[in-house]
Amino acid sequence: MIAIIDYDAGNTCSVMNAMKRLSADYVLTDDPEAILNAERVIFPGVGHATQAMKSLRDKQLVEVIRSVTKPLLGICVGMQLLNRFSVEGDTTCLGIMDSVVEKFVPLPAEPFQKVPHMGWNQINQLQGDLFKGIEHDAYVYFVHSYFVAQNEFTIGTADYNHLFSAAVQKDNFYGLQFHVEKSGTTGEQILTNFLNL
Predict the structure, then answer these.
(1) Which residue is catalytic, options 76, 88, 93, 144?
(2) Residue 137 is part of a domain; what is its CATH number?
(3) Would you say the pTM of this structure is higher than 0.90?
């Protein structure tokens, strides 16, 4: 069973639809026992980091998420919350990865690159079984104004003004900055790989 964490943070419907397309058994839940006993955990997220962390605290899920031992996949804000700190609202996050979430700053020399970074972009420098069968330069769908710089946990990059972490991993914790559930056949393959880890 896959537990999709329910903490009032956005893209749960699209994640559930992706699970249905893959004929995967899932439950949308904020029950700690269900999350800790699941074979896989998906940690979605859209919105503001401060509000998302408040919701996790209100539902007493902070330590639950930190305690997950099975593969966990953070998506978009879910990925960002796996880090130590976000400049969005000066938010202390889960601290699973010792990284900082920064904000994109438009470059005067490249005014066509707007913030947020929104739309299809390529991913590169892919590492590990999460990207089995995925070609370098594959296109996936992004919507975000904040990013994690390339660091020791990076297992995939994308370029928007500069290289940033499109994917990260520490132990059983994985994070994708892009919306894997909205990334077509590439996204479905990545989700399938996650379910097969």
Answers:
(1) 76
(2) 3.40.50.880
(3) yes
